[in-house]
Every structure is written in C-alpha cells, then in structure tokens.
Amino acid sequence: MNPKVNWFFEKDTKWKKEYAQLRQIVLDCELIEELKWGCPCYTYKGANIILIHGFKDYCAFLFHKGALLNDSENILIQQTENVQSARQARFANDAEIIALEATLKAYIYEAIEVEKAGLKVEMKETKEFHFPKELEAKFEEDPDFKSAFEALTPGRQRGYLLHFSDAKQAKTRIARIEKSQPKILEGKGWNER
Predict the structure, then answer these.
(1) Which segments of the chain does DSSP mark as H helices, in order?
(2) Which residue of 9, 78, 126, 147 has the fewest C-beta atoms within 10 A of its own C-beta?
C-alpha cells in the first residue's frame, strides 16, 4: 500500500467498501500502487496496468490495455466507441466484486503478461478518424488553417476531430471549428489553455 493513495480510500463515498475490495484484489497481484489522475493506479515496472475509479452508477477497474485481454468471461466494456485501448470491468455493488474475485485476478495477471510481452494496442491513425465536411470546407477556404491543423500532434488532431464530430448539427460543428481556430493556429489542443 502506498500512503499517498490512502486518502482516496478513506474519503466518504458511495463506493468506499467496493474500492477497498478492489484495492485488496489488485494488491494481492503484487503491483505497485501509485496515484495518477487522482485515482489509484497499479503499475508493473512503470507501465500502467489497472486503475480504480468510480462514477455515479458504478465503480470500475480500468485495464489500460484491456483491448488486448482475452476477456473469456465477457466482463470488459469499451467506455465509448472512441476508446481504443482501455476496457472497464464495472461493479454496482460489493457482491459483484466478490463473485468475480478469481476472474479479476486472472485478468490482472493476464494484463501483466501482456505488458511483459511488450504488446501494444494497434491505434487508429488520425487519417482513419472522421473529418467533418465543415472542417474539410474550412481547410479549402483557409490553407494556413489546414497547415496549422496538420502540424498539430496526432493526439491533438484526434481531440479536435472527436470534439467537432461529436456535434449533431452542422451549425454547432461550424461554431466549434471557428472557436477552435485560434488555438489550432497556436498549436494547442482543444482543451488546452
């Protein structure tokens, strides 16, 4: 146990008992406990293996390379269609965790083996993401804007593409593109200051 992480487990939350159970399961698997993104993260030789986190309706184990796990028990969930690597095992109560303890440990050990083997999730390239027609039109209208967008890191490009494509209406996509133009020209991501 890492004392720097204790506050997460001591805070008053709906999931306090479940968090404690998840912590014990993962600590039994001899991973290093760290605090990352405000959550307990468990690593193997510096590589992230699993994270404990909670939401309104469930708490979860997040397997960082869950897409590479066998998932023989069909318990892993892809949070959204845009999540490429991570997968969650979700729990609504402590009984679900108790029932799956052996399975969860097996998944954790498999995740460690994935890391030991150096396996990587094959990520989609930016060009494989959807480019909204409004963005394509802006590129044709403003070549400097297109050049600035192409100069962004792939992660920043994907962030913008997801942000723009998430809008259901064309006018909202256009507004998002226009609002983002100064940041893109500065080389910043859509959620950077």
Answers:
(1) 6-10, 16-27, 94-99, 101-116, 133-141, 143-151, 154-165, 170-186
(2) 147
Using one digit for the tens of pLDDT, what is the confidence trace for 29-77?
989 999 999 999 999 999 999 999 999 999 999 999 999 999 999 999 9
Q: How many residues does the chain have?
A: 193
Phi, psi of 66 (to 5 degrees): -60, -25
Is residue 44 a contact partner of residue 123, using CB atoms and an 8 Å limit? no
pTM (two decimals): 0.72
CA atoms within 13 A on the CB side of 141: 9
Sign of CA dihedral 95, 96, 97, 98: positive
For residue 44, the tally of other CB atoms under 10 A from its CB is 19
**What domains, with CATH codes, occur in the chain?**
3-116 (3.90.1150), 126-186 (no CATH)
- Angstrom distance (rounded) from CA 11 to CA 179: 39
* Chain centroid, CA 140 distance in Å: 33
Question: Which one, of 168, 174, 165, 169, lies nearest residue 138 by Cα?
Answer: 174
